[in-house]
Every structure is written in structure tokens, then in C-alpha cells.
Amino acid sequence: MRPASSWWPAALLAVAGLIAGCTNGATAPPPSAGPTTSTLATLAPLRAPAGRLVYSLRDAKGVHLWVADSDGRNRRQLTKGRGTDFDPHFSPDGRQVLFRTSRGRYAKDYEQTGTEGIFVINADGSGERQLFPPAAGMRGGLFANWAPDGRRVALSTVLDASGETIVVVDLHGRILRDLHSFGECSAFSPDGRRILFCSHRTGPWQAWVMRADGSGQSQVSRGPGDTYSAAWSPDGTQVVYGSGTAGIRVARPDGSGEHRVPLPVPGAAAGWWPDGRILFSWEDNKLPPTHWGLVRPDGSGAGRLPVLDAAGEVDFHPAPG
Prior knowledge:
mainly beta; 8-stranded mixed beta sheet; Neuraminidase
């Protein structure tokens, strides 16, 4: 993203109000003041680049995942049953979707960090299975995200009394490495050598970067309020983070060259699309609660994606389904 009872952005991830995450965790909270309906008129409708979307939607039985072509066609419900399924991420090859859910088996979340089941499902709706935790007595996970090789997943969990940490697991849910990083919302760089994450070890939540083995942890953002990390640029030279009054910001992974992305709405960074545009979301007081848009890093070309109105969290894959 991402806090308890709130939607959060997640890499390609997103914000929108209502789910469970961390205590104030890896997804940014909804902006403090939603725009009026007039802001919709300032953002021209856009059509997403050709590809596939996966996103979360609330219905009478809970929150479930849906897939669709980027133009809204071939829309189909992916997950079913009672519960909350959210924070979806396509695998690098687009064939599977990783997500977090209230379903499954996992130990009680005593600290209320938001740890739950981490599941994988084929993009055609078959083969759903729990990935993490591999045993019912273990704590669950949150903010799970694929490594670029598609053979590993980074997620946050609680292993012992020392508290929350980011770990890397294999596709059987077995822990390969504890990165000893107090944080959430981990996202591998495109080359798999670094991980963007968020942590509040120095006060407010801030964006951080570390090597994929957990070494070299360094703070990227240094704003006065909570700042949540979102995603790497397609070439790995920049990161995007932030939301609300602090604004969406772009910087190099070492924090240099930071600049604010000008937007007509108090949006939240949610991801970086393969064509170089930033995916963002914002809340609306009167219309469907969450809207989505794309903008270039310099603030130009901002527009909304009507196909995603009311979606909770979103991911995109450029390959057709």
C-alpha cells in the first residue's frame, strides 16, 4: 500500500477506505479531505494502455478480486466466498495473482499489525491456494509482493517478540531470509537488487530502500508527516511515494532530486505503469468513493481512469489475458 480497516496503495498498489493492514501501516491512509465533485471535471477521462487489470471491489459478501481488460471488457470475478480479499499483484508473467485475505489459516494477530493469509490464484480463477503462512501456528503476512524472477515473494510478518519484519519466502511459503527490516509495503526494484519499503523507525512513516539481502537500509523521504512508499520507475532510477497534503513525490533511490508531482486532487501514489506514468488514487465525498488516474512524473497529462471507479486496490499487467 497499510493500516487496519483502511485501503492502501500498494505497488502497483493503492488507497481507498476500508480494509485491514498494519497499525498504520504500509499503505497510506486516505487523504484527510476528499475533493468535491467538481474535481472530476478537471481530469479528462483516459483509456489505460492495453493489458489486464486486477482490482478489489466490495460486494454483499465482503471484498473480492476482479480481473478485466484495461478497457473494461472481459470483466470477471476472480475470488469468491465470504471474507476480504485485497492488495492484488500480478506475477511477472501475468499468469498468477498474489493477494492478502482474511481467509485461510494463521495465528492470531495479537499486536493488530494486520497479518492475515497470503494467497495465490491463477489469473483464470483456478488453483487458489494459501502461500503464507505454511503452518497454521505461524503468524500471517501483509503487503506481499513478487520478486522480478517470479520465484520469490517479499512480505511483512511477525516472527518473534522483536516485532514486525520483512522476509523473503519461496513459492511454498518457506522463509528463505529474514531481512531484519522493521517495515512494510516492500517492492523489489526491476532488477531485483533492491527493495523499496516503508518504516516508522525514525518517527512518521517514511520511504526507505535496502539491498535485496537486507543490508544497506537507508531513508529516502524525510517529510514531517507520514509518507508511504509505492513503486519503482520502470527503469529503476526513481521511486514514487506519498499521499494527501504531503503530496505525491518522486526521487532517486538515495532521496536526491525529490520533487512534488503537481495534481489537482489530493491523490495517493499507487504505482508506476510500464509506459512511465504514475498511477494514483483519490477519495471523493459524493461519487464512488475511490477514483484512479494516471499522470506523468512532471505533472503533465493527468487524467482519470473511469474503468476503475470504486476499485479498492489495483494492479496492471501489460500482457493480454
